[in-house]
Structures are given as C-alpha cells and as structure tokens.
C-alpha cells in the first residue's frame, strides 16, 4: 500500500486522540471511583445498580421502622410494668383492708388508697408514645380510656363491662396495628378488595382491654379497673362482708396475671425485633458490598490502569516527532 | 528518409517543455499537500512521432520519434472508493445524530451518578413508612406531601427537558441539516455547470472536480444518495460527463445537472415529514427547461424513503415511537414503530405518571369509596408527566388528608394504618403497563418500570455507540485507502522533483550537444 505523509499524520492524530480519550476515561474512574458514570457505559451493571440501590433504601426504611417499634414496645413495657406494680399495691392494700382488726375508718383510708391507684392505672392506660395511645389500639386523637361518674371504665366510649357491647369490644381487642418490617409484606387479591396477609407484617398493637379484661356485667365485672372499684366499694361499706369481697379478689388475681402475660409478650416481641434487626443489618451489609462490587472500582486497580494508559500515551507522544520528522526532501542535495 | 537539419532541436524543446510541465505538476502537488479534498495530479505524456506511413512506398532508413508530448493532466482517483466512502458516511451521519441526541436524552433519565426520580420514589415510600408509626399526623403528612410534590415536579422537569431536546433536535434538522442539504445541492448544481463549460472548452477543471467531490462527500453525510454519471456527446468526438444525484433507491433528483431540488420540513403534526420539490423531466431524464426556468412539480413526501444520513438520524430520533405508534403514524412514517426515539421515552414517562397517579388516587379513596385524589393534571386532561401535580385539595388541606384506614371500626380510628400499608404495598406491586392503544409495555413495579425505561435508553445508546464506532472505523479505513491513492506524498514528490530536474537537465544537455554538432558542421567543416 502506498503510504503518504498525510495518511501517517492522520492516523497518528487518530491514535493519539484515542489514547487521550482512554486516559480521560480512566482518570475519571480514578477521580470518581466509579466503574461507570453513565448507564450506557455498562447497561447490565446499571440495571443491577438500580435494583440494589432500591433494596438498600428499603433496608434503611426497615431499620427506622424496627427502631420505632422498639421504642414503642419499650414504652409499652414501662407502662405495663407500672400497671403491674400498682396491681401489686392494690393487692397489699386489700390484704390490709380485710384484716379483721381494721375498723371502718381505716378501711375507708385503704379504699381511698385504692382509688388513687385506680387513678394511676388509668393514667398508665392512657399513656402516649409519639402521639399515639400505647394501649389504645387505633386511637390517636381521642383519649381511649375514660371513667364515668359512677366509676365505670369506658374504652372508646364503650362500657368495658356492659354485655351489650361485648361484640364491639371483641373487635376492638383484636384491633391490629401492622407495620412492614421487611417480612415480605403481601396482599391477597387485587385492589380495592385486597386483604393483607397478616403473617407478612408485624403487629405492634397492645390492646389495653386485652390484658385489663372486659365483657363482664355491672355487678360482676371482668375488668381489673372495675374490679378494683368493686373492692373499693366493699371496703367502704359500713357493714363490711368478707364473703362479698372475696369473689372480686379471685377474679382480680386471675386477671392480674394477664398483665404479667402482657409483659412477657413484649419481651418475646423485643427478642423477635432483635432478630429482625440483625437480619436487616446483615442484609444491609451484603447489599452495600454488592453495590461496591457493581458500581465502584478498586482504587488500586484504577490507578494502575491509569498509569499504564499514561505510559502508552507518553510513548505515543514521543513517537509523534519520530514519525513526522523526515522525508526524502530533507536529504535532497 | 531525409532528416531535417534542425530536427533535434524540436525534440529537445519538447523534452524541455514536458519536463517543465512535470515540474509544474509536482509544484502543484507539493503546494496542495495540505489542501482538503485535493487529489494528486499527474501529467499524462506520450512519445511523439510525426512520421506517417506511406502506402505506396516502403520507408527507407530508420524512423525515429521526434520527442514527447503532454496530453493533459489527470487525477489519481478511484470512483469505487468514493462510492464506498459515501455509503459509510451516510450510515455514520445517521448514527452520529442519533448518538448525540440519545446521549442528551440519557443525561435526563440516567441516575447512575446522581439520585433522581427513582430515588424520589424511594423517598416517598420512606415517608409513607414513617406515617405508619404516626398516622394521620398533619406534620408527617406534610412531609409526605412535600415528597410527593417533589416527585411530580421531577416528572415535570424530566418532561420539559425531553421536550427541550425534541425542540433542539427539530431546530437542528430544520435550520441545520436541511439548509445545508439545500445549499450543497445548489452549489453542486452550479459546479456541474462550470465543470461542463470548462470541459467543453478543453479544460479538465480538476480543482473544480475536487471541490464537487468534496461537496458530494458532505452531502452523503446528510442524506443517502446515488450518483449517476451520464456521458454527453458534445460533437467532434468529445464526450463530457454530466452528473445526476438521486435520493438513494428512488427517482427523486436532488441534483440534475445544473438544477437542484429543494427539501423542506413539514412539522404540522407530531410526526415530522420531509417534502421535496422536484422539476419536470423529459423521457431522457433531462430537466425540461425552456428558458432557464424549469417547471416544478408539486411537493412530494419522501419521509419514509430516506434511508440514511443525518436527516434519517433526525427523523428516527424525532419520530420514533416504538410501541406507541398508531396506524396513522405508520402511514406518515414507515419506521415509526421500529425505532425508539424521543417520543417513545416521553410516552413511557407519561405512562408511568398516569399509572402512578391513578393507582394512588384509587387507594386514597375513603372507606365509603368517596374520591379523595392525591394527584391531578394541571389542565384537566389525562395525567401525563408534563402536567401532573398534587391535587389542589391535598395542597390546601390543613388537617389529615391521606386515608389511613378503610376499615369501619368503632370510635377513633385515626391511629389505624391499614390503608397506608396498601399504599406502601403499591410500591412493591407489579402492574401491567400498557400504551393507550393497549399494547403491553412492561410488567413490574413503578420503579422497575422507570429503571426499565432508563436502561432501555442506556442499551440503545450503547448500541448506537457501537455502530457509530464501527462506521467511523470503516469510514476511516476507506478514507485511508482513498488517501493512499489520492493524497500527495513528500517522498514521492521529492523523488519526482529530482527525476524531472535531471530529465530537464538532460534535455538541455541534448540541446547543447546538438548546438555543438551544428557548430562543428557549419563553422569547422572544410575549413
């Protein structure tokens, strides 16, 4: 092939430009640490990167959610323990009250004490965590536990020991507050009739009437608060009858255990949360590692590559003078 | 045969003259070593003999030629290489326009380097999640609203950016490529006239040929062409070549001898069309021209017949609708469904915006099924990426607006979260995305659909980049081969310079020798 001066210089310029382009690309890799800075440079990795980023962001969400639920449960535990302590106090007071040596006056004092304990229990029942009633189910705006003039406990406006409201109370006791903690939340069916698969979410609700009891009658209450009320009433009576009071205390002791069950329940839930937390952290770590693999360059490798390219670029530059130097004309006499 | 006394002088003179011509051609070549489009020239010479044969008598003695003659100057050029070069240039033109435009588009959608729309979807999801710990909270709902608002604004921005790219490329087509094509064809037509006139008067007009070839090369970059060379007998045994340039595989003349057609853009609809104004021709394909003014035909639509060059690149980018093409679109532009251009991607975004808004609006219906839309369009038409915004009612809401529950429980249910979970679930649910015509596009989540769109573009850019590089490389090699034939080489010219100056000296020497011979013959003989 006939090679001419302009062909040589054109090819040289082309190759030099190619070399400079490569060098620019490699220096960008060193600067940014990225394997690619546009999707088109590596579409397959780009697809992976978008997916991994989304998954990573989701683990961040779960991290927050788990923390939130944890704080909520801690708050619930504190309040529930408080309630339990008050129950113990109620029992101690009761034992004092039924002591045969007590006269009506002292019994009244004990009754007053029980009334105060009732008050603190009510406060605990209406405890709030971040604007939400801890034991109030779905209540948020309206205070859930209230007491009427005759000292009966009401939950969301329903008398807890009114047999007529039993069905509504059943529903409320089973109210759930589900939260997505990365258990793979799914719904069955299509909107708008889709139903949540409850085993794929975490139920953080702690129903107050669940452990306090409900569904008795006015004379024969099931609820701890109402039972305390009854005991108090009995103690206040001038002609105190031991037999009358024992039927309430039996129920009281029975229901009091439910509070304890509630506390253990929280313990179990907290353990589960710890497990979820560790799992999520592992997930996050793995995703992070994958993102690094897919998107980011090993710095040492990037620098070595750049150096190699720089070397070949310099070699190309020094060749330039040699290629474009002499022609026959320079040797003509 | 009798030799005339001064015969040798004539021979020596011709040699001097031809070698002088040689040196002049070398001079021309060296002068133009860096001239773009210059084709290396050579002097065509032949040896000369004035002796004519005599049929009657045999020739006595030896017959010797009388020197050398220059017949003309010609070029080292290969028409086949020109053809191949132009073919590659045409392909390259189309790809380079698409590459540039698609890269622009990619910079809008791509979020490898910077978190954009996909991240914003995730942000909205994060805010919805935070609402599950404190539902119905006006402050937290405000955060959700802000996130949703940024999302709609991003969609608006994307759409506007895409629109800008569309307008930009349309301007490049109208005010760049088309104007250039019309200029080129006009100039080629003028050159045709000049070259023809020169040729008739015996001037090869090599430099004008170079110029014309360059213009044709350039024209090939804009539109696919076929060049016909038509010989014209001008009498006296002389033939000159005339040139007709047609749009590839058609009978539409862009240039017919000294006439050029005009092409224009018709952009009344969303499908850009290209029209051509040609002239009436006779049976031999010569333009009917009574008084220098040809009769023009009505405009003809050549949109679907353009198969290459920058104009093809623009058409593909501006018109390509992929799955969104309608039957009407196909009539206007054949390739509309086969290529994915700017309209495909903007339609994809619109589909996403519509589906997302529609789903969320449906989900935010109250427990009784009353509408409580979260998103709306600015102008009341169907929601698109361009016009989506958060609903006025939501924007103006002072209390809680997001439907937190669809259960009809007893009492205060403002702390329930079941419907927020539904909304969260909507981000993880697979939907079927279809075009307005009902053509299936994709099945997956909102964000997956977005990634699908982005990576589709990424892949397309990568694809075009590869063909662009391939054509560039091929073009370079053909040009290399062409240079090998046509470009000036200093070594060669140096050698020629030496050779011709030696030859010149030899011819001069011949003259001196002859002179000395005559000196001997005339002044010294018989003295």
Describe the structure.
The complex is a heterodimer of chains A (333) and B (527). Chain A has 333 residues and is mainly alpha-helical. Chain A is 65% helix and 6% strand. The mean pLDDT of chain A is 90. Chain A has one domain (45-293): f41 fragment of flagellin, N-terminal domain. With 527 residues, chain B is of the alpha+beta class. In chain B, 54% of the residues lie in helices and 13% in strands. Chain B has helices at residues 7-31, 79-109, 117-133, 138-200, 206-222, 309-319, 327-332, 342-363, 392-396, 418-428, 446-486, 490-524; strands spanning 41-48, 67-75, 225-235, 238-247, 253-256, 259-260, 262-266, 273-277, 300-301, 375-377, 388-390, 431-434, 440-444. In chain B, strands 3-4-5-6 form a four-stranded antiparallel sheet, covered by helices on one side. A three-stranded antiparallel sheet of chain B has the order 7-8-9. In chain B, strands 1-2 form a two-stranded antiparallel ribbon. Chain B is elongated. The interface between A and B is large, with 71 and 73 residues.
Roughly what fraction of the amino acids of chain A lie in strands?
Answer: 5-15%
Largest interface: A-B, 71 and 73 residues
CATH homologous superfamily heading of chain A: f41 fragment of flagellin, N-terminal domain
Name given to the CATH architecture of chain A: Up-down Bundle
Number of helices of chain A: 9
Q: What's the SSE pattern of chain A? A: HHHEEEEEHEEEEHHHHH
Question: How many strands, what sense, and barrel or not for the largest sheet of chain A?
Answer: 3 strands, antiparallel
* CATH fold field value of chain A: f41 fragment of flagellin, N-terminal domain
Q: Pairing-aware structural class of the strands and helices of chain A?
A: mainly alpha
Cα-atom radius of gyration of chain B: 38 Å
Major beta sheet, strand line-up of chain B: 3-4-5-6
Structural class by secondary-structure content of chain B: alpha+beta
């Amino acid at each position: 092939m006939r090679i001419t001066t302009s062909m040589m210089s054109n090819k040289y310029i082309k190759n030099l430009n190619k070399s400079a382009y490569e060098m620019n690309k490699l220096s960008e890799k060193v600067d940014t640490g990225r394997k690619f800075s546009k999707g088109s440079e590596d579409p397959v990795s780009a697809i992976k990167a978008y997916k991994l980023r989304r998954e990573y962001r989701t683990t961040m969400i779960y991290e927050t959610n788990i923390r939130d639920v944890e704080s909520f449960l801690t708050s619930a535990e504190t309040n529930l323990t408080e309630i339990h302590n008050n129950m113990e106090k109620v029992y101690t007071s009761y034992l004092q009250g039924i002591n045969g040596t007590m006269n009506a006056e002292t019994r009244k004092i004990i009754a007053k004490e029980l009334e105060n304990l009732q008050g603190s229990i009510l406060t605990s029942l209406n405890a709030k965590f971040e604007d939400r009633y801890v034991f109030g189910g779905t209540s948020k705006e309206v205070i859930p536990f209230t007491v009427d003039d005759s000292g009966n406990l009401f939950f969301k406006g329903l008398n807890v020991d009114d047999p007529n409201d039993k069905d509504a109370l059943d529903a409320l006791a089973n109210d759930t507050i589900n939260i997505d903690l990365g258990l793979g939340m799914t719904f069955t069916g299509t909107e708008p009739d889709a139903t949540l698969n409850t085993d794929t979410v975490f139920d953080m609700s702690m129903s107050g009437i669940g452990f306090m009891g409900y569904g008795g009658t006015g004379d024969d209450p099931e609820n701890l608060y109402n039972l305390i009320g009854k005991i108090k009433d009995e103690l206040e009576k001038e002609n105190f009858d031991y037999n009358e009071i024992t039927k309430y205390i039996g129920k009281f002791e029975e229901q009091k255990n439910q509070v304890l069950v509630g506390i253990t329940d929280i313990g179990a839930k907290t353990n589960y949360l710890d497990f979820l937390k560790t799992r999520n952290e592992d997930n996050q770590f793995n995703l992070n590692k994958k993102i690094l693999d897919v998107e980011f360059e090993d710095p040492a490798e990037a620098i070595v590559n750049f150096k190699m390219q720089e070397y070949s670029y310099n070699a190309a530059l020094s060749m330039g003078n040699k290629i474009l130097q002499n022609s026959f004309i320079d040797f003509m006499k | 045969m009798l030799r005339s006394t001064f015969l040798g002088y004539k021979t020596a003179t011709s040699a001097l003259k031809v070698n002088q011509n040689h040196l002049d051609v070398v001079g021309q070549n060296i002068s133009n070593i860096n001239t773009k489009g210059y084709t290396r020239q050579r002097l065509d010479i032949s040896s000369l003999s004035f002796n004519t044969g005599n049929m009657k008598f045999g020739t006595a003695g030896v017959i010797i030629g009388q020197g050398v003659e220059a017949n003309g100057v010609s070029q080292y050029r290969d028409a086949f290489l020109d053809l191949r070069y132009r073919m590659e240039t045409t392909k390259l033109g189309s790809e380079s326009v698409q590459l540039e435009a698609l890269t622009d588009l990619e910079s809008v959608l791509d979020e490898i380097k910077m978190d954009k729309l996909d991240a914003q979807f995730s942000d909205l999801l994060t805010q919805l999640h935070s609402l599950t710990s404190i539902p119905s909270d006006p402050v937290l709902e405000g955060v959700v609203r802000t996130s949703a608002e940024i999302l709609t604004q991003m969609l608006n921005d994307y759409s506007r950016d895409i629109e800008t790219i569309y307008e930009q490329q349309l301007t490049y087509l109208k005010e760049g490529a088309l104007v250039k094509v019309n200029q080129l064809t006009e100039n080629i037509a003028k050159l045709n006239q000049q070259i023809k006139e020169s040729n008739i008067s015996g001037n090869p007009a090599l430099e004008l040929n170079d110029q014309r070839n360059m213009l044709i090369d350039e024209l090939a970059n804009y539109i696919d062409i076929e060049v016909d060379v038509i010989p014209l007998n001008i009498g006296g045994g002389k033939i000159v070549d005339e040139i007709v340039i047609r749009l590839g595989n058609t009978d539409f003349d862009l240039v017919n001898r000294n006439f050029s057609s005009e092409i224009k853009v018709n952009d009344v609809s969303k499908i850009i069309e290209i029209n051509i104004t040609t002239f009436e021709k006779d049976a031999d394909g010569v333009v009917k021209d009574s008084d220098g003014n040809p009769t023009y035909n009505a405009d003809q639509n050549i949109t679907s017949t353009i198969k290459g060059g920058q104009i093809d690149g623009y058409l593909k980018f501006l018109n390509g609708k992929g799955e969104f093409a309608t039957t009407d679109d196909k009539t206007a532009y054949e390739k509309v469904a086969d290529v994915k251009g700017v309209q495909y991607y903007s339609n994809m975004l619109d589909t996403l915006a519509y589906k997302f808004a529609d789903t969320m609006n449906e989900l935010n219906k109250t427990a009784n099924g009353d509408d409580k839309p979260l998103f709306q369009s600015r102008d009341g038409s169907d929601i698109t990426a361009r016009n989506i915004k958060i609903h006025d009612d939501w924007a103006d809401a002072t209390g809680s607006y997001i439907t937190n529950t669809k259960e009809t429980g007893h009492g205060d249910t403002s702390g329930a979260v079941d419907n927020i979970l539904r909304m969260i679930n909507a981000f993880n649910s697979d939907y079927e995305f279809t075009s307005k015509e009902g053509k299936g596009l994709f099945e997956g989540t909102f964000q997956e659909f977005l990634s699908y769109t982005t990576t589709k573009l990424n892949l397309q850019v990568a694809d075009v980049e590869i063909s662009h590089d391939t054509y560039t490389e091929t073009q370079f090699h053909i040009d290399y081969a062409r240079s090998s034939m046509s470009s000036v080489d200093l070594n060669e010219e140096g050698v020629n310079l030496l050779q011709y100056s030696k030859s010149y000296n030899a011819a001069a020497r011949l003259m001196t020798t002859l002179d000395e011979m005559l000196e001997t013959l005339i002044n010294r003989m018989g003295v």
